[in-house]
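Lab meeting, item 3. Inverse folding demo.
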């Protein structure tokens, strides 16, 4: 089947036999269903009348196409349906009868008001996997609380824990809570698909961005469980290992990580500072943790004598984990990025590739692009027009 902008065939993958009805919008839900599309699923994006998904109107734009929308909706089909109109409800319900998965990220209660709760839709398709993603999930006192990524970052502790000790709380530099929720949405759907092979029945997958972000807060939770208190902000340092930080060389910064005493020994020899090993402030990790400021000064005094390129070679040769501090433009241009096919083309636009590499399937450099609004509407209305035509 050829579909979506660019007329590139939908790729083969482990989910090639899945039909996904995708009611998700903006970032959280579409990110999760985009993984399914990348892995072969047929994903039909149901959009509201008017302008469709809100991100179609959000920049940045390239040749009139929203990258915000295109990055997480590639390879999908688009149909506009008014779920309050009888004719469109019929088309939608016929899709559901044949679907393997329905994904939605409306505020809890919205689908119930439309008459499309899991309880109702599972009556017409007991094998349906009904996946819901929202800010705080379908249960609990905050279930109906509206949420955007930054609200969840703020309430999960990650925003308060990000930044330097003498600076303000800082939002993580990407929509982390949206993306974490999308990853768990995909994981929940994949788990339910596997479970259905054993039970023959679908289920309701309930994902909360709040839960997903909390699950990524392992170090913060460690500190809370151990002390009963939230950890202080620590900038780029590691909470339990040293040296494990960003360091200044002569020309630019690099990232240096010593996860144990043996690596620190190798670093000291690479820097030609073996005397640091006998300094009681630095001899073992817990002492280095107590004296991180002094240790950083000692290390940077050596690093600033040479450019980063020199130290990357020397420290790497010593077997110590080290890397340059890059911006996104530099990261995109790395040979490693090209080797891993992590900058692809979809619908004429460059965008991140699929991190999931499976030996049984190709990882194409060109993928189908995101659809125009209602691009497949006429075909889909015809395909799902009649209940008795479905098998």
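The presenter then showed the designed sequence:
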């Amino acid at each position: 089947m050829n579909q979506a902008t660019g007329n590139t065939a939908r790729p083969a993958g482990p989910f090639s036999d899945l039909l996904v009805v995708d009611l998700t919008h903006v970032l959280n839900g579409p990110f999760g269903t985009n993984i399914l599309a990348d892995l072969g699923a047929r994903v039909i994006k149901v959009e509201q009348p008017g302008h469709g998904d809100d991100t179609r109107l959000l920049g940045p734009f390239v040749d009139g196409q929203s990258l915000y929308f295109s990055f997480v909706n590639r390879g999908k089909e688009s149909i506009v349906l008014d779920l309050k109109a009888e004719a469109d409800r019929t088309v939608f319900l016929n899709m559901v009868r044949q679907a393997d998965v329905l994904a939605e990220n409306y505020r809890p209660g919205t689908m119930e008001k439309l008459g499309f709760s899991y309880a109702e839709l599972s009556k017409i398709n007991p094998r349906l996997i009904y996946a819901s993603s929202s800010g705080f999930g379908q249960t609990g006192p905050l279930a109906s609380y509206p949420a955007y990524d930054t609200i969840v970052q703020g309430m999960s502790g990650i925003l308060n824990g990000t930044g330097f000790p003498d600076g303000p709380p800082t939002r993580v530099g990407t929509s982390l809570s949206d993306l974490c929720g999308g990853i768990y949405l995909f994981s929940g759907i994949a788990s339910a698909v596997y479970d259905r092979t054993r039970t023959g029945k679908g289920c309701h997958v309930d994902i909360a961005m709040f839960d997903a972000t909390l699950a990524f807060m392992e170090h913060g939770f460690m500190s809370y469980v151990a002390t009963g208190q939230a950890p202080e902000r620590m900038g780029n340092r590691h909470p339990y290992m040293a040296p494990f930080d960003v360091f200044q060389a002569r020309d630019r910064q690099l990232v240096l990580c010593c996860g144990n005493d043996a690596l620190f020994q190798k670093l000291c020899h690479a820097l030609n500072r073996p005397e640091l090993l006998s300094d009681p402030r630095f001899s073992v990790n817990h002492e280095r943790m107590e004296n991180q400021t002094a240790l950083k000064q000692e290390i940077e005094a050596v690093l600033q004598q040479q450019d980063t390129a020199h130290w990357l070679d020397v420290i790497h040769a010593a077997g110590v984990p080290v890397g340059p501090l890059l911006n996104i433009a530099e990261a995109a241009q790395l040979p490693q990025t090209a080797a891993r096919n992590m900058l692809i083309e979809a619908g004429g636009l460059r965008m991140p590739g699929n991190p999931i590499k499976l030996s049984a399937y190709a990882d194409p450099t060109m993928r189908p692009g995101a659809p125009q609004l209602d691009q497949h509407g006429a075909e889909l209305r015809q395909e799902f027009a009649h209940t008795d035509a479905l098998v």
